[in-house]
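tool_call: predict_structure(chain=1)
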Amino acid sequence: MYACSFMFIPGNLDDEFYALDKVIDDYARSLEGFVGVDRWWSKDSTAKNVVYFFTDHETVTTFAKFPEHVRAKKAYAKWYEGYQVIISEVTATYGDGKMPGLTLS
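tool_result:
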């Protein structure tokens, strides 16, 4: 499984941003290799982290090449004060079973 973390400091998140974000999110969810998504705000609410989980690297590449995603990446300065992307291979998940989450199967 792969975790793709999109961390950003929001700037002017306008209607165009939210419309494009929805199209990209809908596309990610439509992919056969989509596992799930988590969204988190930093404790001080200054930065957001959106983490998409995919079964394989091929799906990550397909997602990255989606034309609307490419468009958003080119226009990031309109909406973000700063950003960072981390793509990680997940080798294990664990917990006590009391918190919903993603698991490797």
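agent: The chain has a mean pLDDT of 91. Proceeding to next step.
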